[in-house]
Backbone:
């Protein structure tokens, strides 16, 4: 069962209490898992048990997503705010400088944690922030369309669609290369998570000018990209390698934007190898 923890964060109007929901499994060196925009910690469910066999795994709902609180009024959903919140969360759960793996928005946050030397290693799966302006507009437009669809469909329709491979494809093929592999229950839960994400629009707004431009040289970095990523196109991985020349760049054959579901064994191995 996921846990919930409250802790204090700094905001423009002074210290405030927030709470975040997380799932923790396993033993070993700590590994923090960060999902993408509109998702929740359960995005990592396909790889959690494999990772937990070798790591103390903490999969967290980001602020304003899943079951975690949104940021207090006046706090922007940008890197300069969310990264310290994640650092404070780690302190609250008793973890110092974990390894970190992130997908999409979570990958960008993982790289920023690495740039600020708050983690031991970084594995970024299709991280945001390496797009051209046209690619960013395309991705943001696609995400907005997914959000509108999730909010417009009645729950019984979502449940009915999730029961068939064709319906799961209609709901999730933008982020999964193999949507039929996702369970009906998971598809319903993540569609409702996208629908209820209080931080969605503010996170997109904060991302309009984001480009990750700095090398990360103080910790090992792995960048991995699905060859069938339809949201952040795989050529962005080449740009990431140019920005981070010391990083290990890994192809994920046959995987989409959220690769943990498409090839759990491969993704788990990439994360474990990157967090040694």
Residues:
């Amino acid at each position: 069962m996921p846990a919930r923890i409250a802790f204090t964060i700094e905001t423009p109007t002074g210290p405030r209490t927030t709470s975040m929901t997380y799932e923790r499994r396993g033993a070993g060196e700590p590994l923090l898992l960060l999902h993408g925009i509109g998702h929740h910690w359960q995005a990592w469910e396909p790889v959690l048990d494999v990772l937990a066999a070798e790591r103390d795994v903490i999969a967290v709902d980001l602020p304003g997503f899943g079951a975690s609180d949104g940021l207090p009024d006046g706090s922007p959903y940008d890197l300069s705010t969310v990264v310290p919140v994640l650092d404070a969360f780690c302190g609250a759960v008793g973890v110092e400088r974990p390894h970190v793996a992130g997908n999409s928005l979570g990958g960008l946050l993982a790289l920023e944690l690495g740039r600020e030397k708050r983690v031991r290693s970084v594995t970024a799966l299709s991280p945001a922030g390496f797009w051209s302006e046209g690619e960013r507009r395309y991705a943001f437009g696609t995400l907005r369309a997914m959000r509108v669809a999730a909010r417009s469909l009645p729950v019984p329709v979502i449940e009915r669609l999730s029961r068939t491979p064709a319906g799961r494809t209609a709901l999730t093929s933008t982020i999964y290369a193999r949507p039929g592999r996702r369970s009906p229950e998971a598809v319903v839960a993540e569609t409702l998570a996208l629908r209820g994400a209080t931080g969605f629009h503010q996170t997109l707004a904060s991302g309009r000018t984001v480009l990750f431009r700095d090398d990360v040289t103080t910790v090992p970095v792995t960048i991995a990209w699905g060859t069938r990523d339809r949201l952040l196109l795989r050529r962005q991985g080449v740009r990431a390698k140019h920005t981070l020349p010391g990083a290990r760049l890994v192809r994920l054959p046959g995987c989409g934007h959220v690769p943990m579901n498409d090839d759990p064994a491969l993704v788990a191995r990439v994360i474990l190898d990157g967090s040694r």
